[in-house]
Amino acid sequence: MVRGSDDLPSVTELVDGPQPVRPQDPIFNPAFHSRPLRAPVDEFDVVALGGRTTRHPEAAEPFHWKGLLLQSFSFELLQHATRIMTADQNDRHILLNSPFWSNYWASAQQFNMGRWNDGDSIKVNYIGHPMQGAISGYIEVQNDPRGRTQEISRSREYWRSRFRAFLWNTVYSTQWEIGPLGETAIFNQGGFTYPIRCNKKPGTPDYCENPGTTYTNNTGWVDFIITPVVGTLWLIGEDTIDRYISDPLVRRHPNNFGIKVVRASLNPPRSLANMLRGRYPWYRDYEHPSEYQSPVQVRFQRLLSEEPVEHFDLSLHYSSLNVETNHTTCMNCRQAATGAGLEFGLRLSRYLDFVSDVSIYPQASPVSSLSVGGSLTTATFGFRSGYSTKRYAVKVGLSPGFASYSRTGTDPSSLKRNYNFAAAATLSGDLRLSNHFGLRASAVQMLIRYKTTERDPDGIGTPPRLSFLSHDNYSNSTNWGVQIGPVLRF
Hints:
By secondary structure, this protein is α+β, with helices and mostly antiparallel strands. The chain folds into two domains: 65-300, no CATH class; 309-489, Beta Barrel (Porin), CATH 2.40.160. Helix content is 30%, strand content 28%. The protein has helices spanning 30-33, 65-85, 89-97, 100-108, 122-142, 156-178, 222-252, 257-266, 268-276, 295-305, and strands spanning 45-49, 52-56, 194-195, 215-216, 312-325, 333-349, 352-365, 374-388, 392-405, 420-432, 437-455, 472-489. An eight-stranded antiparallel barrel has the order 5-6-7-8-9-10-11-12. β5 (312-325) and β6 (333-349) form a beta hairpin. Residues 1-23 are annotated as: Disordered.
């Protein structure tokens, strides 16, 4: 059937046609436009398609993997800082003067998984490690949008969320025990044996060197099992304390600072996890269900997300670095090696740059030795941050990399290039002469790690004091330098 012209729809009946103005509608009210158009969180977006409406629910909040990894890494750094500050001289020697990767693999290969106990005390294995597990579990909970507002109950969602915390707890504790950023890498647990439950004072009945003294290399199943299992039980126990003791007190005295301190004290693992994300120790997500980021996180994210004004820069510079050198008249003497280099900076955001620098110092050490000789090449890759305006910029950077000498060795007939770990901390200042051209001056503190001719003394590694670690020694040399040159911005 064909419709006549009289049967055609009017223009206003079409979905995309002009509609009659209805002043009573909010959209035509001038006061409506003066307000920010912010839809409530639980509203649906309505899209007109062919005269029909389709409702699209708002996307669910995703899991915060970045927060989980950054907060877990911060916790790991805090643990290592505590261990380094309380370490004895032998442990610090292993950390600072021994080869990292070879000692890590040697230690990992000596794990004894045929026993339960690792030789640590009861308070370390059954109190300290479960607390570690509870902290890593709470870090997972506070980054889980489905779990962070859950209070202890019989609900399936609560127990699912705590099971996810248990899984992350297991991953974190396993990495801490045997991973490349854990105890096996830092201080090399497993790589040597030592006496336990004995007296270090000679002449005492239980002197450590007496026959029959028990030795361990600090490995066993205990930490792999106790940390995640008891740590998760600890977390559930503190959830219980929160619901039946702390929360009623806070509800009765919401503005009492002392009560808040009591809440934080009754739940120390959650308190530390809160502080790792920039919250007060007594903060609880179920009291603020719509909030995830703390004010500190919001400010930090805002700074990182600001768009950069320029995209990248190149700086060709003159370099001078005060390093150990060998000359015919003086071996292992400090002198300034001069050369040139190129620095490249890529803007990731307004306040964060990726930066790389390559510098060459011809004939830095005319005479060769085990670790030093010939021309020196340094290459570093890292990040820098700071403040910049139209006229000047001040930034600091930290960049690991390597330092390579072209002719090293003790045999003049077989000299070869070596590669040493290096890391540079820089403070740079720019004077901008135009939009794309300026001058840059930088102060550099570069650490170079050299292999030395010294070796650990004989006797280390003899039974019962077994050692599977390298006897090689490395020295850590700090070297000051300056860089000056033009900089181009694009």
